[in-house]
Amino acid sequence: MYFISTRGGEKVTGAQAIVQGLAKNGGLFVPEKFPKISDLEMEELAQMNYPERAAFVLGKYLADDLGADYLKEICEKAYSTFTGKDPAPLVKIDGNLFVLELFHGPTCAFKDMALTVLPYLLKKSCEVTGIKEDILILAATSGDTGKAALEGFRDVAGTKVAVFYPDEGVAKMQRLQMCVQEGGNVFVAAVRGNFDDCQRAVKKMFASEEFNERLAQKGVRLSSANSINFGRLAPQIAYYFSAYLDLYTSGQIQMGDKIDFVVPTGNFGDILAGWYAKQMGLPVRKLVCASNRNKVLADFFEKGVYDVKRSFHRTMSPSMDILVSSNLERLLFEISGRNAKLTAERMTNLAEKKEYSITQKEKAILDEEFFGGFASEDDMIEAMYETFEEYGYAMDTHTGVALSVCEKYRETLEKEDDEIIDKTPIVVLSTANPYKFPQDVLYSLSGNDVKDSFKGIKRLHLLTAMKPPKSLMDLRYRSLRFKTVVDNDLNKMATEIFKFVDGEIVPVPADWKK
């Protein structure tokens, strides 16, 4: 299968798309055509375990380049690092409401679903394409991608990983996870600014000929671990299929019945994976895009105008504190009839004028397939509290945003005497373990406000009886390894990268060795 750029001018293999990460003109790689999964194949998938399902879905895009047997092997290896028998269990809350738990991986966030697989995909892609240089994985993160990338690529031969995160723009537990990272090939730095500042600078590095030439002189080439890389996006398609098949095998639906998915959304990669699953034949009725107070996406789905000329808000769901949702470009490309020129113009307008608009015809397509909504902090807290009170189910703040928007979506469904009669199953994607945000989750569930994250974990454990992940508890006893803070300045960020590439590795604190 071949992949093309959303901005035209480039056609590459799947392996090339994974190695490059981003098209040379700044566009994102998309499949030349969407593969289909037949009814017979769905029945076969229903009998498989999660790693087998993931390998099958990945194979539709990458088997030609990487081999079906290799994909099966690496998915088994990747998901063996998760806790429990099922890497993505589906939990029934009540009636037709389900939660898809995607946080059982090594870093307790949904990014593990893809970033445990990506290192294997990248390694094989380098072999297939004959790449001999070291690969520098360069990523901007709003919290979870950074840790998952650092952990996934830790000490992987031939790779280096550099992560930038917004100073004061991630939760304390997310910061700790990144800043105590082990490995001899990793680098972490905070940027004075928000996630959009980090992402903008990283994209400029990818697009800079001078920057890439200097790396090439050092025997290094860039690639990405963000969902702008198709190799990061593709594994996420699998869990939409798996959730549907779990509903089928448990007798909740018949094969072919449509279901809804509700997705807490920031950079638009997670929900786009669901839309890709639909293009492959998964019976999806609506994809509900749930935003927090930074509701640029909710406004876009309502008005058909993407406008970032607005205030940026720091919230209790920091991984969604994003104004420029990069993966939306892929969807724009599709609804425009794959008009690369128009997509490029819109991205230019976004960069220069801070907004773009879509046509009424395009908006009609979105209205048919998506529902956009947002939750305030109070809305989120109420949804989390009521769900815990009624069902004893605790969730993180991002999932709380999704559940709140889910309720708003349900209010639009068919009713009779104020009773919702639409029984279509709704799956809410849960993207992080509640213990990654212990203070905010504790406050939402009980009203108790504590200043220390680990005291928050202790009290949350007493309240919910959920077992805290050992990987998070161990953070308490680690001194920070990475303390670098840089200005939101491309040259200063690039300087740090070159020092890292030249071999300047931050030493492990002495007390780690005790």
Question: What does this protein structure show overall?
Answer:
The protein is an alpha/beta fold and 514 residues long. Helix content is 46%, strand content 16%. It is built from 22 helices and 18 strands. It has a 6-stranded mixed sheet with strand order 4-5-17-10-11-14, with helices on both faces. A 5-stranded parallel sheet has the order 9-6-7-8-18, with helices on both faces. Strands 2-1-3 form a 3-stranded antiparallel sheet. Strand 15 and strand 16 (419-420) form a beta hairpin.
Task: Write a concise synopsis of the structure shown.
With 514 residues, this protein is of the alpha/beta class. Helices cover 46% and strands 16% of the residues.
Descriptive terms for the model:
16% strand; 514 residues; alpha/beta
Cα-atom radius of gyration: 22 Å
Shape label: globular
Distance between the termini: 51 Å
Q: Which band does the percent of strand residues land in?
A: 15-25%
Mean pLDDT: 96
Poorly predicted regions? none
The count of β-strands is 18
The biggest beta sheet, please?
6 strands, mixed
Please tally the helical runs, counting DSSP H or I stretches of 4 or more residues: 22
- The helix-and-strand class reads alpha/beta
Task: Output the strand order for the largest sheet.
Answer: 4-5-17-10-11-14
Helical amount: 40-55%
Chart the SSEs and their pairings:
Blueprint (H helix, E strand, L loop, with lengths): L1 E4 L5 E3 H7 L8 E3 L7 H8 L3 H17 L1 H12 L10 E5 L2 E5 L10 H4 L2 H12 L4 E7 L3 H10 L5 E8 L5 H8 L6 E6 L3 H13 L1 H9 L2 E4 L6 H20 L9 E6 L4 H11 L4 E8 L4 H8 L1 E3 L20 H8 L4 H14 L1 E3 L2 H10 E5 L2 H15 L5 H14 L4 E2 L2 E2 L5 E5 L7 H9 L6 H12 L5 H4 L11 E2 L3 H12 L13
Helix pairs in contact: 1-6, 3-4, 3-11, 11-12, 17-18, 17-19, 19-20
